[in-house]
Specification:
There is one protein chain. This protein is of the alpha+beta class. The protein has a single domain, classed as Aminoglycoside phosphotransferase (APH), C-terminal lobe (Aminoglycoside 3'-phosphotransferase, Chain: A, domain 2), CATH 3.90.1200. 40% of the residues lie in helices and 18% in strands. It has eight helices and ten strands. The strands form three sheets. A five-stranded antiparallel sheet has the order 1-2-3-5-4, with helices on one face. Strands 6-8-9 form a three-stranded antiparallel sheet, with helices on one face. Strands 7-10 form a two-stranded antiparallel sheet. Strand 2 and strand 3 form a beta hairpin. Helix 4 crosses helix 7. The termini are far apart.
Length: 248
């Protein structure tokens, strides 16, 4: 051990890696509660919780490497992406956890948030009006009733670790709970549309691709302002703004 790696850090939470241990510091104790419970309930590989002393959660690092990174081509094999889809199907078929998660937000609240963010993006000149309007139209398909599933809630591609063609672990469960299964599929493939067919093949059942694309638009529209305000760059090549542009 010769360094402390800052995995992610902003005003709400921070994750550090020290050797084979991740240390998560979260201002919201409830998120750590959810992560602790979800990692115990999920029927797929998850990191081992080593100890908790609020506001810190220590978890063991999982073997392998991340499936990819937003804005960069993935070097993982099609079989690895399919394995991620298979793991997701197993999670979504599991008994529901007790808590509502990010992927299970109230539809009326979600629509109101979307309207508010679209208005902000246009009013403040953050994005062109036609780009926002088009993606707002695409996002409509996600605003429909769904059958609740056990969802990860923040399944970014960097949260899935693989070794060769096998999933070795899925990390960062603080947004887990009951929600829309297609939200997980969309979050995993955001910015990696070329691997959507692989993930769906591994998932092993028909999914509504238009809804997945709608979640790409909706998540990106909701995320731009937050990312900018927390010193991330949604305008970087292959990231959220490029995802929005691809819908034009």
């Amino acid at each position: 051990m010769d360094e402390v790696e800052v995995v992610v850090a902003h005003s709400e939470r921070a994750t550090l890696r020290v050797g084979d241990v991740f240390l998560k510091v979260d201002a919201d104790q409830a998120r750590l509660d959810v992560e602790d419970e979800a990692t115990a309930l999920a029927p797929i590989p998850t990191p081992k919780v080593l100890w908790r002393k609020p506001p810190v959660l220590a978890i063991a690092a999982v073997p392998g490497t991340a499936l990819g990174r937003l804005g960069e081509p993935s070097t993982a094999s099609p079989a690895a992406w399919a394995a991620a889809g298979t793991a997701l199907r197993k999670l979504h078929d599991a008994p529901l956890p007790p808590c509502p998660g990010r992927a299970g937000r109230n539809l009326e609240e979600l629509a109101a948030d979307l309207n508010g963010e679209c208005e902000w993006l246009v009013t403040n000149g953050a994005l062109p009006a036609d780009l926002v309007t088009r993606n707002r139209q695409v996002a409509e398909a996600a605003l429909r009733p769904w059958t609740p599933a056990f969802t990860h809630g923040d399944l970014q591609v960097t949260h899935v670790f693989v070794d060769g063609d096998e999933v070795t672990g899925i990390i960062d469960w603080s947004e887990a709970g009951q929600g829309d299964a297609l939200y997980d599929l969309a979050t995993l493939t955001l910015g990696h549309e070329e691997h959507l067919d692989d993930v769906v093949a591994g998932y092993g059942t028909d999914v509504d691709l238009d809804v997945i694309r709608a979640w790409w638009s909706l998540r990106s529209l909701l995320g731009v302002r937050w990312l900018v305000e927390h010193d991330f760059d949604p305008f970087a090549p292959g990231c959220e703004v490029d995802v929005l542009r691809s819908r034009m």
